[in-house]
Amino acid sequence: MNADKTLLKGLAGLCVLLTVAACSKQRDHQHDTNGPFPTAVVGASVSSIETNPFFKGMYDSFAETAKQQPTLTLLLDSARNNQDLQNTQLNNMLDKNAKALVVNLADVAQGPVFLQTMCKRKIPVVYIDHHPGKRPLASCNDAYMVEGDSVQAGMLQGRQVLKGWRANPAWDKNGDGIIQYAMLEGTPGHEGAMARTKWSVGTMEHYPKLGVPVQQLFQQTAMFNQTTAEEVVGEWVKSPAFAGVEVLLANNDSMALGAINVLKQNNIRLPVFGIDGSEPALRAMQSGDLAGTVFNDFREQARTALHMGANLAAGKDAADGIGHNMEYRVVKVPYQDIDTSNLAQFLPSGN
Questions:
Q1: Rounded to a whole number, what is the largest CA-CA distance in the chain?
Q2: Per-residue pLDDT for 351 more than 70?
Q3: Is the pLDDT reported for residue 13 higher than 60?
Q4: Which residue, 69, 68, 53, is CA-closest to 348?
Q5: Distance of CA 307 to CAs 33, 45, 100, 186, 276, Å?
Q6: Closest listed residue to residue 173, CA positions, set 248, 233, 281, 236
Q7: Beta strand spans in 152-281 (E)
Q8: Phi and psi (nearest 5°) for 284?
Q9: What are phi and psi of 96, to 5 degrees?
Q10: Distance CA 324, CA 334 (A)
């Protein structure tokens, strides 16, 4: 009961913010809040670009930002989901005179140990998207975080489900007025994944004037990975209980697209919702395969993290000129709602 009250208070406080965000038709990353970077050498490593379109977009945005900042020397690599490889890459960057690092952790579970290692070496690190843990981050004055606001992401996803539920009475297959759902979760222990799940489900059930009772039928981690999601949902559909699922939610688009592939193979139609706004997901929305997603602004996260890294490498305040508020060394970049009215704004130019 206390948890429900806390959630309701949080929902009430964020409803106004979501309403304002929903009214905005401009993508935040188009706003030029970005002044010139200081002269600096920065190393950046992304967990993987081979299997996750969101991280591929982040990697490309690092490279694009560096081209736009002639005073920035960027050393960039991808770790292929291997933390040992990432450690080697980053050490090589430091050997090449990088004075600060931007790190999308390959293995979140190793985040606290990695953070303490870098902290003892007094190397400034800006973590991006993959959180090393709140307590470790708070313990080190040289550690910073840039991420999307995962609470907002979960709320936006949950509200999309509620809007679809109202507009499509047929989604309530058994007519009981309860949303029977399945949830694909990201990496265990991932701060953002836990927040997306909690606030998506909580919003469906408690959003003021729109909330609907919910019932979890299936919930399992799929590691933010499309292939893993296909394996998980492939097992789910073998269960007679899966026939009762009315909505399928995923902590990111890759898992949502994996679920859609399995549903198609088994001639099952369900509304599926993701998070990130990756180009493949936007295409799936265009075709009607994906019911909804929200935009996780990888471009703005990448630009902000690099700017902070350059500031730190140059001995300046991390937040200098980044265009975002920073609290407790954490910057949260807003998510943006996507629907049929603004879908074209999020697709690549000319598409």
A1: 64
A2: no
A3: no
A4: 53
A5: 11, 15, 11, 28, 22
A6: 248
A7: 179-185, 214-221, 247-250, 272-273
A8: -65, -35
A9: -95, 20
A10: 10
Q: How many residues are recorded in the chain?
A: 351
Please write the tens of the pLDDT for every residue from 28-56: 333 344 579 999 999 999 999 988 889 99
Q: Tokens in use for 333?
A: 């970049």
Q: For residues 213 and 71, what is the distance between their CA atoms, to the nearest angstrom?
A: 54
Residue pointed to by tokens 């994906």 = 290
Question: Sign (positive/negative) of CA torsion 338, 333, 3, 197?
Answer: positive
Sign of the Cα pseudo-torsion (30, 33, 36, 41, in order): negative
Take residue 131 and report the two structure tokens written for it.
């959180």
Residues 57, 302: Cα–Cα separation, whole Å: 9
CA angle 155, 156, 157 (to 5 degrees): 90
CA distance 41 to 309: 9
**Can you give the pTM of this predicted structure?**
0.83
Sheet of strand 40-46, all strands in order from the earlier edge strand to the far edge = 72-78, 40-46, 100-103, 125-128, 143-148, 330-333
Q: Are 91 and 114 in contact (CB under 8 A)?
A: no
Residue-range domains of the chain with CATH: 40-147+298-334 (3.40.50.2300), 150-289 (3.40.50.2300)
Segment 124-166, tens digit of pLDDT: 999 999 999 999 999 999 999 999 999 999 999 999 999 999 9
pLDDT digits (tens, 9 = 90+) for 47-100: 999 888 899 999 999 999 999 999 999 999 999 999 999 999 999 999 999 999
Q: Residue range 218-227: average pLDDT?
A: 96
> For 292-313, how does the pLDDT look when each residue is reduced to its tens digit (9 = 90+)?
999 999 999 999 999 999 999 9
Neighbours of 20 (CB within 10 A): 10
Q: Are 205 and 178 in contact (CB under 8 A)?
A: no
Give the span between the Cα atoms of 14 and 10, in whole angstroms: 6
Neighbours of 177 (CB within 10 A): 9
